[in-house]
Design brief:
Elements lengths: L5 E5 L4 H11 L3 E6 L11 E4 L1 H9 L3 H5 L3 E3 L1 E6 L4 E6 L10 E5 H14 L3 E4 L3 E7 L2 E6 L4 E4 L1 E4 L6 H6 L7 E12 L10 E6 L4 E6 L5 E8 L6 H5 L3 H12 L6 H7 L7 E5 L11 E3 L2 H4 L8 H18 L3 H30 L3 H24 L1 H7 L12
Parallel strand pairs: 1-2, 1-12, 2-8, 5-14, 12-18
Antiparallel strand pairs: 3-7, 4-7, 5-6, 9-10, 10-11, 13-16, 13-17, 14-15, 15-16
Helix pairs in contact: 1-4, 1-10, 2-10, 7-8, 10-11, 12-13
The protein binds flavin-adenine dinucleotide.
Flavin-adenine dinucleotide binds next to helix 1, strand 2, strand 3, strand 17 and helix 9.
Length: 404
């Protein structure tokens, strides 16, 4: 079977533009179709691109522009709601050349990746929501909700945790799991915090989880994970105003040590809550012409700090497989075999931490007692151990042919 030449990429978040750049480097033509008419909604959302993600961006020559609006982040200090320091852990590893992980506003990362792709001549079409996709002779045809369609040799679904492509590939694929937490976040100036720039402070509060980091600009970036057993609907979330959220969060963190309540009260911009989802294991990531990558295939809990980095690694690895292996089916199969063990291990580790975030009552007391003992061992494990190296030092060698 001949090599793939043309590609439809559905979703222009992180995996989409990264895949387009990787495919171009591999000699394939692609067009990115993004549902949002402009940039995605990103109120208060920020994330960390771990060193393995920066490393994968470097393979694409896109690391510097992508992380330019962020700041290096290397450590998490963990506190109990009573103000007891529970321990510290590496957020990332520092590679031999000084490369480390970066914290970025999601909107800045999206914009930087879009600009990089566009500057390389890659076409990104906005306002194109995929509705259906079918196999046609020698390829695939995508149909969009605006009535237009496009055809190519293959289609790559980079359409996130609520992926449409995933359901087209396997109509029986599981829906995302709600993690029992909602997330809110914000940015504040003028509230003094005792923190080194580049260090996250995470507080396992009595009723909810709070995290913040001081940016070198003096702005404090914060987020809250609030346990909510039933997933709130979009409508019920929309009915809660920002001032109501501020009050709710202030009440939730009122009994906790740390700056949570001052930071929340001082946040002037709108607050928006989003439920946290993860993806259960999928039976199949691909058919012979379509595949899902990034969150669409394997969204880990945000707690892992790895979703974006894994999406970028996927993009690089898939482009290599399509470059080196004859026919998309063989390339997709090899890609899945290469990627599954890594992503599934990371998903498992993150799920354990999520359970701690939602702990209440006896679970919370146990957590606060065991963490000071477990954290130092965990730090040594991540900083010096093989698991840490496997997680952060992962490097996809572009020049080595893709085999399995
Ligand atoms: C609160 C929170 C905190 C997080 N923190 C971190 C962190 O610190 N570190 C980290 O690495 N990861 C983090 N993540 C996860 C990270 O954001 C995701 O793993 C990452 O965005 C996945 O990239 P993606 O391109 O696969 O999907 P997305 O970034 O979700 O992009 C999917 C794109 O597809 C588009 N789309 C959807 N449906 C369609 C359709 N039918 N047609 C066309 N386009 C469509 C969407 O509009 C979107 O632009 C966090 C996530 C959350 C929710």
């Amino acid at each position: 079977m001949s090599h793939t030449r043309t590609v439809l990429i559905v979703g222009g978040g992180i995996a989409g533009p990264a895949a387009a750049m990787a495919l171009q480097k591999a000699g394939l033509d692609s067009v990115v179709y993004e549902a949002h008419p402009g940039s995605a909604e990103n109120i208060g959302a920020f994330l960390t691109v771990a060193v393995n993600g920066v490393n994968a961006l470097r393979t694409l020559g896109a690391d510097q522009p992508a992380i330019a609006a962020g700041f290096p982040t290397t450590e998490i200090i963990v506190w109990s709601g009573t103000g007891k320091r529970l321990g510290a852990a590496a957020v990332s590893m520092t590679l031999a050349d000084g490369t480390t992980g970066y914290t970025l506003k999601r909107a800045d990362l999206y914009a930087a990746l879009h600009n990089q792709a566009a500057s390389r001549g890659i076409r990104i079409e906005h306002g194109k929501r995929l509705a259906a996709a079918d196999a046609v002779s020698g390829g695939v045809r995508a149909g969009f909700t605006d009535g237009t369609s496009a055809t190519a040799d293959i289609l790559i679904g980079c359409d996130g945790v609520h992926s449409t492509v995933r359901r087209i590939i396997d109509p029986t694929a599981p829906a995302p799991d709600y993690a029992g937490l909602i997330n809110l976040g914000g940015y504040v100036r003028g509230v003094p915090v005792t923190a080194e720039p580049g260090t996250y402070h995470m507080i396992f509060g009595k009723r909810a989880f709070f995290g913040y980091a001081l940016a070198p600009t003096g702005e404090v970036w914060w987020f809250a994970n609030v346990p909510e057993p039933e997933e709130p609907t979009r409508d019920s979330r929309a009915r809660i105003s920002s001032s109501e959220w501020r009050q709710r969060l202030t009440d939730l963190f009122a009994d906790d040590a740390g700056p949570a309540t001052q930071l929340i009260q001082a946040t002037a911009h709108q607050l928006a809550a989003s439920p946290v989802h993860t993806m259960p294991r999928l039976r199949a990531w691909h058919t012979d012409r379509m595949i899902v990558i990034g969150d669409a295939a394997h969204a880990p809990s945000p707690t892992s700090g790895q979703g974006a980095s894994l999406a970028i690694e996927d993009a690089v690895q898939l482009a290599k497989c399509l470059r080196d292996l004859p026919g998309p089916d063989r390339a997709f199969g090899t890609f899945e075999q290469l990627r599954r063990p890594r992503v599934e291990k990371i998903i498992k580790q993150a799920a354990r931490v999520n359970n701690n975030k939602a702990a209440t009552g006896l679970g919370r007391i146990l957590r606060d007692r065991t963490m000071p003992v477990l954290m130092p061992a965990y730090v040594r494990f991540i900083a010096n151990g093989k698991p840490g190296r496997q997680l952060y030092a992962h490097h996809i060698d572009w020049d080595t042919p893709c085999t399995y």
